[in-house]
Amino acid sequence: MSKKKSNILEQANDIVNNRSEEKSRQYGPFEEGMRRAAMIFNGMTGKDLNGSDMYAALVALKLSRHSYNYKQDNLLDAVAYLGALDNYVELHGYKDSEDPLS
Hints:
Elements: H1 8-18, H2 20-27, H3 30-45, H4 51-68, H5 72-92
């Protein structure tokens, strides 16, 4: 009997919620990295993005790549970023209620 392959939603959940500790040791907490990326972007451009905007940008990048050619990894990453955004909003709020970057 062959082992059933997990679907893309299960894989994304595993990446976001079960492997985050492993990645945190290498790169720091993901949500903190998104907030820092927003601060760096804002400093470089004079724009005013927040952490949740960075998640949207990464989802857009993955869907842009998908528009050229199907590669499941792009869809997996997009779904994982959406799941991570949901976790981020729980911690930091969204739009007008989002914690200020500092």
